[in-house]
Design a protein that fits this description.
It contains six helices and nine strands; from the N terminus they run E-E-E-H-E-H-E-H-E-H-E-H-E-E-H. It is an alpha/beta fold. The strands form two sheets. A seven-stranded mixed sheet has the order 5-4-1-6-8-7-9, with helices on both faces. The protein has a two-stranded antiparallel sheet with strand order 2-3. A hairpin with a 2-residue loop joins strand 2 and strand 3.
């Protein structure tokens, strides 16, 4: 069984909206709801942590309705907040396997999470980055935030709870739903189009 850590403390400045990014609604429902509900249904996730920050007080209140543990971070940035959590033994055991996942993947499913975890445990490396091929972004007119050797990171990763450098594999998923990482208003509009189709 694996612990999931949802990173939900970002401002979402690229969306240029007046409310918190995890609470942005897709199909009339906050994005973070989809992520939490998929994790709850996963057969391999047994604990869900939600990292919030001073930027996301409404998110912090909202997620209390779910069986999650809330972690308050300083909101110093994704990397900094994650590093502080991974070394804090109040939240995670040393070298415990952690799935980190962003709060803005509204189309993620329990089956996709299980597929990722099954691939991780087969590989035997301490860390794994889940990516989607760039051509899927082109097909659906989604703008990737980062492209590396034809792959785009999805915001889903696995690693051990320590701040040491870890040997990493890259898992290439063909699930277009993992490409819908909502960072801009265009991404949001495209996600609504995807639902309609």
């Amino acid at each position: 069984m694996t612990t999931a850590l949802i990173m939900a403390g970002g401002k979402g400045t690229r969306l240029d909206l007046d409310y918190e990014k995890p609470m942005v609604k897709v199909n009339e429902k906050p994005m973070i709801s989809y992520v939490i509900e998929a994790l709850i249904k996963s057969q391999y996730i047994n604990r869900i942590l939600v990292a919030i920050s001073p930027n996301t007080p409404i998110t912090s209140e909202y997620v209390k309705k779910y069986p999650v543990k809330i972690i308050k971070t300083k909101g110093e940035g994704y990397i900094e907040d994650l590093a502080n959590i991974l070394k804090n033994r109040e939240y995670v055991k040393k070298d415990e396997v952690i799935m980190t996942i962003v709060a803005d993947l509204p189309f993620i499913t329990a089956n996709q999470i299980d597929d990722v975890l099954e691939n991780y445990y087969k590989r035997g490396k301490p860390a794994m980055c889940v990516s989607v091929p760039e051509y899927l972004f082109e097909k659906y007119d989604i703008t990737p935030t980062l492209v590396y050797e034809g792959l785009v990171p999805t915001g889903v990763n696995l690693l051990l709870a320590n701040n040491e450098e870890q040997d990493q594999s890259i898992y290439e998923s063909k699930n277009v739903e993992l490409a819908f990482n909502i960072n801009t208003l265009n991404d949001l509009n495209l996600s609504e189009d995807y639902i309609r189709k």
